[in-house]
Amino acid sequence: MVCLPPLILIARTLFAPMFQPLSLALGMRFVRAKRDNAFISFISATSVVGIALGMTALITIMSVMNGFQQEVRTRLLGMTAHATVTGVDGSVQAWEALIGGALSHPEVLGAAPYIDGQAMLSTGLEVSGALVRGIEPGLEASVADTAAQMVEGSLDALQPKSFSLAIGRGLATTLGVGVGDKVTVLIPQASVTPIGVVPRNKRFTVGGIFEAGMYEFDHGMVLMHFEDASLLWRRAGSASGVRLKLADLDRAPEIGREVGAQLGQEFWVSDWTQLHSNYFKAVRTEKRVMFVILALIIAVAAFNIVSTLVMVVNEKRSDIAILRTIGASPLLIMRVFLVQGSLIGFAGTVVGAVCGVALALNVTTVVPWIEQLFGANFLDPSVYLISEIPSLLLWSDVASVVLMSLGLSVLATLYPSWRASRTEPAEALRYD
């Protein structure tokens, strides 16, 4: 016992006996007792409601941010690879050998070459910029879910030298084109013609339209066959790099380092956490900040218990004095009021946890109803990447919020309970 830290000794002395029958019975009796002062009951109800509302908001917001992060990550990785291998000069010549070397790593499930380049797409008077990516349709399925995101046409239309392309739905709407229409692709490379030097351009046929669910891809990406991209950019069969699919995307940095060491220093390996690191760091930071801000709501409501117990102590001075005269110790009195204050916090915590979990599980139903009711759109896809509010409830988040709420509630009872234990029977009964 002596070797235990002082705080643990104090906690055991105060809180362990709270669950003894006498402390619980007296504390619950004081909670159920009818009070002459209705204001005390109002403050108690306010504390319960405040804690419940704070917990509901905190659990819901954390679930929405978890869902937002998961949804964006899923959509990002639907169009991008878990890891990318490029040459130190930005190109890869023998990409077939590079794919073989990468697939020799047991954690690499798939590999496919790609060519990336910026271009302008033109159809009559409509012009829009886009990232053009050359892919091998047969290998693309091993690294991305592009084929599953096709809403019109098919990736099979991207055949060598067919000069067909697949574009995002948003870009197709902007250009006013559909499957079978012609699009002129202009790239920032010059060609010498009888009329002078002009940007290189080529007419392509729209062979498919995809919808990834992200503004970045649906409005700014074009896919074509690897060989067509190689001819357009005059790369002579070289690739910009090789995209990899990993067995465990959460271990992408570690696996990427292993693959890089295996391939040699002439190649550079980047993973999805590096390509989009700023976004995911911002989401994690925002989640922590929101937790702190909303936790303050719970803290304010919890410390309303201080006001409640102070008034209860003043109202129950004569009862405390009687208990003291029949042998109740100051520590017992303190435990009684600890029980009473903790029960108020416990009630608010239970109600808040139930409401928070229920709302978090039904956000995808409640939010569209509110949007329809007020005629508003909470998420602009051009700003927030997605257009619907997702939700992912993690029980670890619920547990942390519940423990924080209970801890704040118990902490708020300490001072009033100590004041009650200091009540002198003679002073309290002098005028009764």
Question: What can you see in these coordinates?
Answer:
This protein has helices at 6-15, 21-32, 38-79, 95-103, 137-140, 169-175, 215-218, 226-233, 252-263, 272-275, 277-302, 304-315, 317-325, 330-361, 363-374, 381-384, 395-421, 425-429; strands at residues 83-87, 108-123, 126-135, 150-153, 164-168, 182-193, 196-210, 221-225, 241-246, 267-271. The chain folds into 2 domains: 8-72 and 280-429, no CATH class; 89-264, no CATH class. It contains 18 helices and 10 strands.
How are the SSEs placed, and which strands pair?
Layout (H helix, E strand, L loop, with lengths): L5 H10 L5 H12 L5 H42 L3 E5 L7 H9 L4 E16 L2 E10 L1 H4 L9 E4 L10 E5 H7 L6 E12 L2 E15 L4 H4 L2 E5 H8 L7 E6 L5 H12 L3 E5 H4 L1 H26 L1 H12 L1 H9 L4 H32 L1 H12 L6 H4 L10 H27 L3 H5 L3
Parallel strand pairs: 3-8, 5-7
Antiparallel strand pairs: 1-9, 1-10, 2-3, 2-6, 2-9, 4-7, 5-8, 6-7
Query: Outline, from the CA principal axes?
Result: elongated
Q: Which strands sit side by side, in order, in the main sheet?
A: 2-3-8-5-7-6
Give the SSE string. HHHEHEEHEEHEEHEHEHEHHHHHHHHH
Helix/strand structural class: alpha+beta
Total domain modules: 2
Give a count of the beta strands, DSSP E runs of length 2 or more. Answer: 10
Distance between the termini: 43 Å
pLDDT averaged residue by residue: 79
The description of the largest β-sheet is: 6 strands, mixed, barrel
Helix content: 55-70%
Return residue spans where pLDDT drops below 50 for at least 5 consecutive residues. 6-19
Strand percentage: 15-25%
Radius of gyration: 33 Å
Number of contiguous helices: 18
